[in-house]
Structure formats: C-alpha cells, structure tokens
Amino acid sequence: MSPWSVDQTRILTRTEVTLVLTDLHRRARRSRNSQQNLAIFRLATCCGLRASEIANLKVGNVHVGINRPYLDLPKRITKGRKPRRVALWWDASTLADVTDWKGVRTGQGAKPGDRFVCAQAGPSLGHGLARQNIRSRFLVACRVLGPERVATLTTHDGRHSFVSHALAGGRSLAEVQQAAGHASLATTSVYLHLAVDDDGTVGNLFDFTKNGRDVLA
User: What does residue 61 show for φ and ψ, rounded to 5 degrees?
Assistant: First the structure.
C-alpha cells in the first residue's frame, strides 16, 4: 500500500493495540513464542519496522540500558539502503518489552551478530525467520481482535499505525520521518490525523508522561 493512499481503517486504534498487548502479555507468561510475538508486534506497531527489517535485525542493533535507547537499522536491512535510528525512549512499555526480549536472547547465548527474533524450538533455536513467518506471527499476535479484523491486516499496517500514532502523540514530522525512513516530509505528513480511536478522537499511543509509563502500560 502506498503511503499516499493510506486507508484509515488499516490503522490499529489505541483500543485495538491495548487489546493485543494485554492478550500478548498474558500469553507471554506461559509461552516463549508468545513473548517473541509480543516483541514482533512491538517492533512493527510501536517502532515502524517492516517485516524484512524485523527478520534481519541483530541483537547488537538493539541498544538499551542507556539514556536514550534506540534501534540501529543499518543500510543492509532497510528499504532503499538508507540507515536509520528508531527511538525506543518514546514509549516506555515498548522499551520494557524490547529490553525483556533482548534479555531472553542474551540468556540463550545470542551474540551481537545473531538474530534478534529467531526460531525457538530445539535444534533450530537461533535460526533466522523468513519474512513470511514474521508476517504470520504478527497476525497471530493480533488474533484477539477476531478473524474478520485480522483478515484485513498486514505487518505493514503495524508500520502505518506507528507513524500515525507517533504523530498523534506529539512527535514532530522530522522525528517521525527519520524514524520511519521516509524520503520526504511530504510522505510523513500524509499520516497526520489518521490515528483514531473507537470514539472518533485522535489516538495517542506514545504519551507516557504519567508516572514515567505510557498509557498502555
């Protein structure tokens, strides 16, 4: 889908994101794969990564435990070979979930050059995931929304949601352009006011000023 014709119904509302995250956090307590699906959903919907970028992200590209944590996306994994950084400090709960998953991977013995998300079963542990597997896991992550809604979604809709909610949350056009890797501000500006909640008001996924936590914590 071209960003010049973004369908507003493809943007995940704040209510929908809350439902998905609540369900994933519950499942993650019992399942390592569900915890990884939580990380994938965060990377797509709260960081704006494409499926190919999620698949190729390395443990060493995830910088946490510093004043302003971020994802470092090298040009070899990005569209148009344009490197970029994605702030993790914009959203406290996203930072917490991504940090937790990095802890899982390092606990599995992963080195900086190993995949951030990967196969979790037996002898395949640590092997990379295909883009189609990332896409499937994103849809599994969203299953609490029901089959009809899931049938309308793709991983790229997570990216559209990130841009829309980041702008609605008060990040500047320049900040979001850089995080998304858009070639121009004109592309980013298409998303202004696209993020809506169920009551018709503009959503705000990235407001975590209250007690240092975001509104979805």
Answer: -85, -10
